[in-house]
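[step 3/7] inverse_fold.run input=structure_tokens len=196
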């Protein structure tokens, strides 16, 4: 019985992955029109499939396990939020630099909105709410080194990637292994749909 729950959770997580990683498709357009970010539907009006999809990924309760497993591959910076998304290493800049996070004027902005293309290439334009204190200079320099070592690709789109991706492993194997380690997510799932 336990293996069926793991398998079900892995399949639901794979659907969630497909939803965020695929750009087009009629099935995605349908889900976007019904459940997309602009549409706020009360939980009791959502389909059981959609509820289970969000529940297995532990979304709606802050940052769930699924969200922690995904990251971004930087392209032109059109989708990645500079401070809030994971696009450098395994952690977002907000977590890496908590003392600096309250200072930028560009919180919530996309990477591509925090700089400009010049003849020599990409030039970062971080703007701060106030003057940087002397003790903060080292943090700003550390941030500067970190972001300037990344390459922004003008002609490529940002792409979400599975953060724990191992070379040669399929997404379904990875999702199954993640789900095996997430017993609390499985305990939230109900296999019986009778009586609903």
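[step 3/7] decode complete -> sequence:
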């Amino acid at each position: 019985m336990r293996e069926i729950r793991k398998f079900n959770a892995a399949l639901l997580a794979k659907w969630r992955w497909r939803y965020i990683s695929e750009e087009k498709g009629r099935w995605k357009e349908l889900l976007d029109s019904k459940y997309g970010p602009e549409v706020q539907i009360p939980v009791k009006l959502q389909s059981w499939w959609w509820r289970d999809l969000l529940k297995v990924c532990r979304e709606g309760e802050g940052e769930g396990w699924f969200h922690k497993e995904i990251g971004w591959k930087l392209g032109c910076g059109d989708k990645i939020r500079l401070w809030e998304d994971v696009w450098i290493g395994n952690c977002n800049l907000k977590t890496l630099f908590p003392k600096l996070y309250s200072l930028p004027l560009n919180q919530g902005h996309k990477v591509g909105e925090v700089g400009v293309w010049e003849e020599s290439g990409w030039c970062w334009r971080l703007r701060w709410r106030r003057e940087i204190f002397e003790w903060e200079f080292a943090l700003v320099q550390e941030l500067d080194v970190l972001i300037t070592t990344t390459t922004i690709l003008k002609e490529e789109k940002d792409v979400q990637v599975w953060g724990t991706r191992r070379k040669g492993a399929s997404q379904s194997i990875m999702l199954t292994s993640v789900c095996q380690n997430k017993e609390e997510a499985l305990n939230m799932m109900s296999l019986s749909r009778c009586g609903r």
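[step 4/7] annotate
Residues 26 and 32 are 10 Å apart (CA to CA).
The radius of gyration is 20 Å.
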